[in-house]
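Backbone shape codes:
===
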Amino acid sequence: MNHDKLELVPVLSTCDLVLLSLAKAALEENGIVYHVTGENAGYVYPPTLSGYAYNPIAGPPTIMVTREDADRAKEVLESITQSQEQGL
């Protein structure tokens, strides 16, 4: 992999801090390297009691992976996002 010009693509954007933590853990467990944009921008606007953090300027935190890992990352994250949507 050429690290000089890594092309990162978004695989998940969410204001849900629990979902973000679960997604990061799942990617790490599967050996997928990621970068989160906007993760610390929420500290300007602290999370609400519901556990959501959103900065209207930066937008929601977004997990980025290399283009080569994008399909695999989406597969890993699909079960997590479906569980969260179903309230499991």
User: Anything to note?
Assistant: The helical segments are 17-29, 70-86. The beta strands are 8-13, 34-37, 62-66. The chain has a mean pLDDT of 82. Residues 17 and 51 are 6 Å apart (CA to CA).
